[in-house]
Amino acid sequence: MKVLSSYQAGKLTLFLKGELDHHEAAAALRKISRTMDDYLPRECVIDMGGLTFMDSSGIALILKISKLVGETGGRAWVENAKSQPLKVIDASGIDRIIKVTTGAEQ
Amino acid sequence: MKQLNYIKLEFPARSVNEGFARAAAAAFAAQMDPTMEELGDVKTAVSEAVTNAIVHAYPDTVGTVQMRLRLLDGNTLEIMVRDRGRGIPDVKKAMEPMFSTGGEERSGMGFTIMGSFMDSLRVRSAVDRGTTVTMSKRIRAKGS
Predict the structure, then answer these.
(1) Is B113 helix (H, G, I), strand (E, B) or coil?
(2) What would the CATH number be for the domain defined by A2-96?
(3) Around Cβ B141, how many Cβ atoms within 10 Å?
């Protein structure tokens, strides 16, 4: 999987692309942690529009990103979740504690 | 239930094999003419079960993971993932949502996801003898 990022006016957007599983999650988290340290964003968007597969490792990654950005008083949310990754999010119940949008409502 | 077809796979408990395991499961399930959603469900459940074996069963060694898929009558897919690792002392507790003894890349939602995406889920485990996860899902004919 790939993690691309963009930063503007306090908002960091992370674009997740490909398949996110346990094997990919550790490297993705290291990269995201470094990016967080560089920008210390007030807001962090986790854009899942390019994600074709995700298991519960993706849930752990979302929670970790939320915790990291929360440590500096910021907040994180998920955008463009769809199909299989959205179903995993729904099954986990994580959308009760972190805002999740599917793109359709925007 | 009558067995119509099966495959057996065995691979070392290395995380790089997680993607291979779910791709193999999807390739086997394709003969059942599943929808994209059903295929995604199967891939997700396999990914969770295989990852559990890789993360938890063999903390200090690289053991072996076995996977068996069976096509049963009634267009039912049965998936079995087995390890011969350290086992789970308390299966009931391990299946509780958010319970995890894994690292920060694990959420403790693996069994919850497996149970949600498959029709049945059974976990048998014995300490120092290993764990067997058996799941099944009926694949509905497209358009029905």
Answers:
(1) helix
(2) 3.30.750.24
(3) 10
Contact indicator for A61, A29 with CB cutoff of 8 Å: yes
Distances (CA, A) of A68 to A80, A81, B57, B60, B101: 21, 21, 29, 29, 21
* Residues B73, B129: Cα–Cα separation, whole Å: 31
Instruction: Tell me the pLDDT tens digit for each residue of A51-106.
Output: 999 999 999 999 999 999 999 899 999 999 999 999 999 999 999 999 999 976 65
Chain A: residues touching B (Cβ < 8 Å): 19, 21-23, 25-26, 29, 53, 55-57, 59-61, 63-64, 83-84, 87-88, 91-93
What is the ipTM, given to two decimal places?
Answer: 0.91
Task: Give the domain ranges of chain A.
Answer: 2-96
Task: Identify the residue whose tokens are 């789970």.
Answer: B88
**Tell me: the pLDDT tens digits for B60-113?**
899 999 999 999 999 999 999 999 999 998 888 888 876 666 666 666 889 999
| B105:A63 CB<8 A | no
Residue with tokens 């395991």: B21
Average pLDDT, chain B: 92
- Parallel, antiparallel, or unpaired for β B64-72 and A75-79? unpaired
Nearest beta carbon to residue A63 from set B48, B107, B110: B107
* CATH of the domain spanning B3-138: 3.30.565.10
At B112 the pLDDT is 93
